[in-house]
Design brief:
The complex is a heterodimer of chains A (about 110) and B (about 110). Chain A is mainly β. In chain A, about 0% of the residues lie in helices and about 50% in strands. Chain A has strands spanning about 5, 10-15, 20-25, 30-35, 45-50, 55, 65, 75-80, 85-95, 105, 110. Chain A is globular. In chain A, about 35% of the residues are buried. Chain B contains no helices and twelve strands. The chains are: A mainly beta (about 110), B mainly beta (about 110). Chains A and B meet through strand 5 and strand 9 of A and strand 5 and strand 6 of B.
Chain lengths: ~110, ~110
């Protein structure tokens, strides 16, 4: 199993550009999450999904969009990138019960200049 | 609401010192409790977990005991190594859609 994979690993965007961060998991997990981690800080939840076709906002959804057309994939779209979106983005998945941990991808380091 | 509070860092220790990172929680019901570790440049990974009161989770020399009476889940290790330098996150899950993470505690271990 590859677990949770994310692409790209690094990206530099100019202000106003758009991009999609890719996330895929091969564990057949229903729950998937997007977090951002600013330098020296903890995690903030952007969006989450409890299954294909179902998504909901987390703490900091503004400036982002998600879709979940399959169980495996959960892409995060940034429209009109702003410097405040400079961060490391982590995708995670979970089997969906309280006893199961979250599995994290390696992260995408995004800089907006 | 549910929340996790962990001690602020950074924590700086010499190799072979004893480590404690405090974690307390507020939750309705009976949550599962977790410690995650984040090594530099990587994502979080599970270090250990406990799913009911008085359970002890352990892994790689780290231990934490689920104390319902004090709503705590403190992380301990008897003798830290330089390779333990990382950020440690305490977390809880009540079976809802979201895991609640603490703010993280950065640990530096000096040789």
């Amino acid at each position: 199993n590859a677990g949770v994979t994310q692409t790209p690993k690094f990206r530099i965007l100019k202000i106003g550009q758009s991009m999609t961060l890719q996330c895929a998991q091969d564990m057949n997990h229903n729950y998937m999450y997007w977090y951002r981690q600013d330098p020296g800080m903890g995690l903030k939840l952007i969006y989450y999904s409890v299954g294909a076709g179902i998504t909901d906002k987390g703490e900091v959804p503004n400036g982002y969009n998600v879709s979940r057309s399959t169980t495996e994939d959960f892409p995060l779209r940034l429209e009109l990138a702003a410097p405040s979106q400079t961060s490391v983005y982590f995708c995670a998945s979970n089997a969906g019960t309280a006893r199961n941990e979250q599995y994290f991808g390696p992260g995408t380091r995004l800089t907006v200049t | 609401g549910n929340s996790v509070t962990q001690m602020e860092g950074p924590v700086t220790l010499s190799e072979e010192a004893f480590l404690t990172i405090n974690c307390t929680y507020t939750a309705t019901g009976y949550p599962s409790l977790f410690w995650y570790v984040q090594y530099p440049g990587e994502g979080l990974q599970l270090l250990l977990k406990a799913t009911k009161a008085d359970d002890k989770g352990s892994n790689k020399g780290f231990e934490a005991t689920y104390r319902k009476e004090t709503t705590s889940f403190h992380l301990e290790k008897g003798s830290v190594q330089v390779s333990d330098s990382a950020v440690y996150f305490c977390a809880l899950d009540t079976g809802g859609f979201k895991t609640i993470f603490g703010a993280g505690t950065r640990l530096f271990v000096k040789a």
